Amino acid sequence: MSVEAPATPRTRITAKARSLRFDAGSLSLDLVATVGRRPSTPVERLDGPERLREWCAGVGLAPRDDEDPAALLAALRELRGAAHDVVTAHLDDRAPRPESVDLVNALARVAPPAPRLRTDTRGRLAHPPAPRLTTAELLSAVARDLIAVTTDPRTRDLLRTCDAEICRMIYLDNGAGKGRPRKWCSMDRCGNSAKAARHRRRTAAPGPARS
Description:
Elements: H1 15-18, H2 27-32, E1 35-36, E2 43-44, H3 49-59, E3 62-63, H4 69-91, H5 98-108, E4 118-119, E5 125-126, E6 132-133, H6 135-151, H7 153-156, E7 159-161, E8 170-172, H8 187-204
Parallel strand pairs: 3-6
Antiparallel strand pairs: 1-2, 4-5, 7-8
Helix pairs in contact: 4-5, 4-6, 5-6
């Protein structure tokens, strides 16, 4: 008589789990973070034109109105896979796939628009509007950011993976831990949850037997 293996607990996919992240510390890592819960139950956060617009607005990139959203979405997802491979290769002390390196380098060859200063009616510096980008220019901006993150030794050494097994988001530790490496992508999201789980385990543990 065969015995069925116990069912794996299913993790509920909440609206919070599907929400976009803009706190990874760099443009390319914010793109990598559009897939959540990679090691267990991957959650696609960049799941359509509305989310694409939300993500572009959140990172300050504005595609031109005549660009095809479906083509841009597909290209960003392809770049996202390559970016994830490149950053995890560093964290895992392995070589990235050659096709990932080739894709990033090919996309980075396109020159993004030159930055510009803008002044208001009184001649004071004003925040410039996001330039309207072609798909190639937008992808180049992300690819160049990834290259900057992974080739600058000081920045590369700040790459971290969230300690929460259900998260494992990759982020730059910007020093908010006051000299101590950050364990969590966000204290509000994963840090507090981990502390609450430890507290529940301690309170649930049986105390010493009384004589």
